[in-house]
Amino acid sequence: MANSALELLALVLTAVGLIGAAASTGMPMWRVTAFIGENIIVFETRYEGLWMNCFKQADIRMQCKVYDSLLALPPDLQAARGLMCCSVALAGLGLLISLLGLQCTSCVGNNHRAKRTVLVVAGSMIVAACICVLIPVSWTGHVIIRDFYNPLLIDAQRRELGEALYIGWVASAFLLAGGCVFTCCNVRSEGKEVARSYIYSGNSDYVAYPPPQAFQPLQPQQLVLLPQVQTRPVLSRHPSSSYSYQSRQPSRYPSVRSGVAYL
User: Fold this and answer.
1) SS3 label, residue 188
2) Does pTM surpass 0.70?
3) Contact predicate 14/174, CB 8 Å
4) Mean pLDDT for each 10-residue chunk of the chain (263 residues)?
5) CA distance 179 to 257
6) In terms of Cα–Cα distance, which of 89, 92, 88, 108 is closest to 100?
C-alpha cells in the first residue's frame, strides 16, 4: 500500500487541481481582445467567458454582463459549461472519497483492502475530472488559434488565449498527477499482496490436528477366538486305482492319488 507521504502528496495535488478547475470555470478570461493591426483601441479590453462578457477600461473597474439566454449560446460553449461543471463535481467527490481511504483515517477501519479499493475509485474519478477539464480548455484554445489565422475575419474579431485557459491546463495537470498517484500506487500494491498471498497467507484457516497415536498391541482379553471348521471326508468322483491308508493326522493338502479328499 502506498505510504502516507504519497497519499498526502496526491491529496494536495488534487486539492490544487480542484481549486484551479473551479477558478477556470468561473473566470471570464477565456477569450481576450487581440490588439493587432488597425485595432488601436488599447484602453478597452473585452473578455469572454463561459457565463458572462466583461469590459475593462483603463483606470476603471471591470463591468460584466451575464448571458441572457442559455439556448442562444453556441453549442461548444454549452458543452464547455457542462464539462467544466462535471469536472469540478468529480474532483470534489474524488477528494472527499479519498479521505476515507487514507492511512491516517479510520472511516473504513483497519481493512487495508477496502482502503485500497476506495483510493483506486477516488483516483479514477479524479482522472475523469482531469479529462473533463482538458477537453473544453483545449477545444477553446484550438478555436481561438484557428480563428486568429483565419483571413476572412477582421482584426477586431480576433481573440487571444485568456488566463482561464492556462489555469485550466495547469489544473488538469495537477488533477492527472493526483489521480495517477492514488490509482497506480494502490493497484501495484494490490498486485504485490495478491502474489504474496499465494505463497503464504497468515490469515488462512489452518487447523492443527493432533499427531496419530502410536500403535498399541491388543491385550489378551481383547482377542477373539474364531471357531474352527471341522473337515469331513468326501468321496472323490474319480478314485485312484491304488488306495492308500491315511494317517491319523491327515495332511493339509490331500493327495491327488487319494481316493478320499478332506475339505
Assistant:
1) helix
2) no
3) yes
4) 76 93 92 69 78 81 84 87 94 91 74 84 93 94 89 79 92 93 74 47 54 58 59 56 48 47 42
5) 101
6) 108
